[in-house]
Amino acid sequence: MKAITNATILCPVNGLIKGGTILFDEKIHAVGKTVEIPKGTKIIDAEGRYVAPGFIDAHTHQGLFDGSIGWAGADGNEMTNPVTPDMRGIDSFNPDEPSLGEVIRGGVTCINTGPGSGNVISGEAFIVKPIGSGVVDDMILMAPSGLKVAFGENPKRVHGTEKRTPSTRMGVAAVLRKALVDGQNHMIELEAYLAKAKESKEKGESPPTPPKRDLGLETIIKVLKREIPIHAHAHRADDIATVIRIANEFNIRVVLIHCTEGHKISKFIAKSKFPAVVGPTIYWVSKPETRDRGFKTAVELNKAGVKVALQTDSLTPMNHFPLLPMYVIKEGMDREDALKCVTINPAEILGVEERVGSLEVGKDADIVVWSGDPFEFYSKVEQVFINGNNVSIK
Hints:
Layout: E1 2-11, E2 15-24, E3 28-32, E4 42-45, E5 50-53, E6 55-57, E7 108-113, E8 121-128, E9 140-150, H1 153-160, H2 169-203, H3 215-224, E10 230-234, H4 237-250, E11 254-258, H5 266-272, E12 276-278, H6 296-304, E13 308-310, H7 323-330, H8 335-341, H9 344-350, E14 367-370, E15 381-386, E16 389-391
Parallel strand pairs: 1-4, 1-5, 6-7, 9-10, 10-11, 11-12, 12-13
Antiparallel strand pairs: 1-2, 2-3, 5-14, 7-8, 8-9, 14-15, 15-16
Helix pairs in contact: 2-3, 2-4, 7-8
């Protein structure tokens, strides 16, 4: 058992606690000003320090693209077909990929990572904790966390230059609709088989021949059954509207990824009830659809009532992650909402709020000790605990 004492505790649920204590092992057992500390507990005196939940980056590609070795490390886009729902990002994840070492230096203890946006449907995303294990299976918090899909310039450029569909935005939408309809048809086929198999068993007859398995359609069925959301890459306002249109047609869950021009249609997005994971914002304008990027987007969406998280897309080095809430505060968001944008909001958006995102009893002990207020530029990460274990800061 460990106890961090004499700390200024920041929690998006319980607020600010001065002179507080957190008692934990792999889980949090108590938080407050008057915590009874059992005999034999290891005491960590955090006087003058701030303690916060580990930050969560809800959209990255960490572990799938090793830019230090170029082509040999580019394992996040299987761009041989515009529809690859059978791809699982976990199979490309390299625990030794260099940028993973930057994660905890930014106070981040949980990341949603997975395939890129070269295809209309790219594959399954998943959530890991950077615990330093050499095996990704030991790092998993949730898999799959969603199915990555992409709208706009990326898929139409990648596949249009190969003279195959999609080469336009309407082509992107059509490809996605067709894949969802294929999933519906396969689901009907499976349901018919199960009903017939049950009937045959009751009658003592030979079972029917099952349909051929299709791994990609099985993943799409998870989306249609609302077991997982689509993580929809969309920058331009019209692409965001198309995501919402298709989601309503098929009654599927959506997480809006990037949402760069979301401020232009903030009320429309708020009406949809879909959350937005905004970013990367500290990054050069890489293509026309990102020209209007800015921290105003997160601020305006938050004002409109959209649940907002901030993200790096692995393009902003993750050791700079604390700059994201600092900038939205600078643009007018209050500090409490900024804290939520990097803690409880992404946890709720990803469906892991029972485990992470706040400093509450029963949750994973993912705790960061800061030299000062984490939203002040000169504050540094001093200690990081993931699942209650002190993780070295490289």
